[in-house]
Amino acid sequence: MVYNFKVFKKCSPNGKLTLYMPKREFVDHISFVEPIDGVVAVDEEYARGRRVFAQVVCTFRYGREEDEVMGLNFYKELYLASEQVYPPPEKLPYEPSRTQERLLRKLGPSAVPFRLSVPAGAPGSVTLQNALEDEGEPCGVHYYLKLFVGDSEIDRSHRRSTVALGIRKVQFAPSKPGPQPCTVVRKDFVLSPGQLELELTLDKQLYMHGETIAVNICVRNHSNKVVKKIKACVQQAVDVLLLQNGQYRNVVCSVETQDGCPLQPGASLQKVLSLTPALGTLRDRRGIALDAQLKRQDATLASTTLLLEPEQRDAFGIVVSYSVKVKLYLGALGGELSAELPFILMHPKV
């Protein structure tokens, strides 16, 4: 029986270290993160009397490269895991995976396995989109696995004997859907009797990328005001936790209608509006949060960041959330009435 498996391979510039990894995406299960494992082929003559270390590095860029002047730096590196892989320990503290066992048999005695654990709550891989005129690396959180030869894990690595391979920490849609989102808001008027009531319901809480959201709107006009227009939009909320004023919102899709309007006093209106959040026409909009990509693939909007606890926010992370906002326009004197419902936007588990 033939067992086929795919591995990612990368060599150091001097050819003395070779990294093999079965995958480059590691799933965050909220309460724990999948271990990062692979195999390193070491040139034993070159490494004799030396040590080889493996590290998981999280990089966080929170400002543009072109703004880094006078020694100012908007870039941080976090070392989330570190382990000596060569010389190997006499006994491994874990059982090698099937792929690791096959690689060890194929590569011979010069190959050693490794496994690194990233702490739960580590920031997710998110990129903030550059505008078309921007140059340099985009802001966001990225991960890479680093292998280097040195005397200690804090030793300065030399480029010729270092391997760095980009990896990604991802979250997939939860298996259990949450409750159906629903809200009712009312507005009183100072000089007018009665209320204007807006009831907003989504058909479910969890949506996959590319899926259409059905927004159920029910307006009951018990006031003497006139509803002239209805607008619905999907908002992407981005929170750059390191920055005090790092919260902002992007409108990723919207729809506006006057169907059924003007809604006169005493009348009611029921309507379903469809919204499909997608990157589409937003590819030149600065600040849109995207899922970080390992290679040049079609980018997608960033998935919702799922947290075990609301307080479990890494200071170097970017938290992304989505909501549907519906607004009723009552004219210049009447003002407006708005309601908002959060929902979850994710990729399905593969």
Notes on the structure:
This protein has 350 residues and is mainly beta. The chain folds into two domains: 8-171, Immunoglobulin-like; 182-346, Immunoglobulin-like (Sandwich), CATH 2.60.40.640. It contains two helices and 20 strands. It has helices at 44-47, 98-107, and strands spanning 8-11, 17-21, 25-27, 36-42, 51-61, 75-86, 111-116, 126-128, 139-150, 162-170, 182-189, 192-202, 206-208, 213-221, 229-240, 247-257, 268-275, 289-291, 318-329, 336-346. Strands 3, 5, 6, 8, 9, 10 and 18 form a seven-stranded mixed beta sheet that branches. The longest helix is centred in the first third of the chain and has 10 residues, at 98-107. The chain is elongated and about 90 Å long. The two termini are 25 Å apart.
